[in-house]
Design a protein that fits this description.
The chain is α/β, with parallel strands linked by helices. 34% of the residues lie in helices and 17% in strands. A seven-stranded parallel beta sheet has the order 3-2-1-4-5-6-7. Strands 10-9-8-11-12-13 form a six-stranded parallel beta sheet, sandwiched between helices. 42% of the residues are buried.
């Protein structure tokens, strides 16, 4: 079988990502793209100090104090992407959740520009999802950035979206279409059971993710209390102190696992009765990781969970943000088959992502 990317041999290829954090789903996707696609350079706005990722070329923004504030640097990002480099490439592939898709590294009549979209910038286009851009004082700046986002991305030849949810936003905000390529999840790793002496009895509920307001960890604590079950919260973030105070006020045990290793996270998934994920996510790799371990998901009937969870088979989806609405479903978790749950997660494997990505880039880059 011929290689869909064979025609890239001898052509210059640049890969582009937003800022590069130490951990995160979009960074994991970018790493996978870099492994799959032969490339000459990788560009980012900046790399976080604790992000150990060699070979990244940072923008001039990385040499300013603004690298420490995404909010303050946001209005400058379109300008930065347009002044990134004078180099020209035959193919440019961006991984974008803000303005990376507006980058131009060559005229569109000579350079094929492709963009994989994690989401149009939430704080610009959909501040109701993410409080970072919801202030009424930001209404005018948002409209300016929205207009710039549309105008500066007209040169993009092809879009891929990480979910049906994101494809719909691309259509609504940018009036463009996109193919859907779900992000890669290392289901092979998570589906392998931990050592027997590390196994646990699926006797607690689990919350995993970045500890920021829109992830609803306060609701996760309330659900565990309403269900009368112990809770483990894994991750890190600026809300840690608030969450620890909330945990002290409830009458169920709450354990915090700060920055767990991937191996430890797998143990936590395997030991949990269910993953609590009451979040409106663009896609959400964490629920797929949990399901690869045979662990069901209790989450919102919104966004990416509509694609990653089969309601009534691999978890239960709820329309409410009321903790009491989740309690009857906790009591029904025994109805679900761990084998069926894990089999569903396998459809989001890295192999599936690689095949679809190669097909998209192979067609769109010609």
């Amino acid at each position: 079988m011929s290689d869909p990317l064979g025609h890239l041999a001898g052509r210059s290829v640049a890969l582009v990502h937003e800022w590069f954090a130490a951990t995160g789903g979009s960074e994991a996707v970018f790493r996978q793209i870099a492994e799959i696609v032969p490339h000459d350079e990788r560009f980012v706005l900046w790399r976080d100090r604790d992000a150990e990722e060699p070979g990244l070329r940072e923008s001039w923004l990385a040499r300013t104090p603004l690298r420490r504030s995404k909010a303050m640097s946001l209005p400058l990002m379109p300008l930065v992407w347009r002044t990134l480099s004078r180099e020209q490439f035959d193919v440019v592939i961006s991984s974008s959740h803000a303005f990376a898709h507006t980058v131009r590294l060559g005229p569109p009549e000579q350079t094929r520009h492709l963009s994989y979209i994690h989401s149009p910038a939430r704080y610009v286009w959909s501040p109701a999802f993410d409080g970072r851009g919801s202030s009424p004082l930001l209404s005018l700046p948002r409209r300016v950035l929205q207009a710039a986002d549309v105008r500066l991305s007209r040169h993009v030849h092809s879009y891929a979206a990480n979910s049906l949810e994101v494809r719909e936003r691309i259509r609504r905000y940018w009036r463009r279409d996109a193919v859907v390529i779900n992000p890669p999840v290392d289901v092979d790793f998570f589906s392998s059971a931990p050592l027997a002496d590390q196994a646990q009895g699926r006797d607690y509920l689990l919350g995993v993710g970045r500890w920021i307001p829109y992830k609803n960890f306060d609701l996760i604590i309330a659900i565990a209390e309403a269900a009368g079950m112990p809770l483990v919260i894994a991750g890190s973030g600026p809300e840690e102190a608030n969450l620890r105070r909330a945990a002290e006020r409830v009458n169920v045990p709450v354990t915090f696992e700060v920055r767990p290793s991937t191996e430890r996270l797998r143990q936590l998934y395997w030991g949990a009765k269910a993953l609590l994920f009451p979040v409106h996510e663009d896609f959400g790799m964490i629920p797929v990781e949990a399901q690869a371990c045979g662990t069901p998901v209790l989450g919102l009937r919104r966004g990416g969970l509509l694609e990653t969870v089969v309601d009534g088979e691999t978890g239960f989806l709820v329309d409410s943000l009321d903790a009491a609405a989740f309690v009857p479903l906790v009591q029904r978790l025994h109805e679900l088959s761990p084998e069926r749950i894990a089999a569903h997660a396998a459809t989001f494997s890295q192999q599936q992502f690689a095949a679809r990505l190669r097909e998209w880039i192979g067609e769109a880059s010609r």
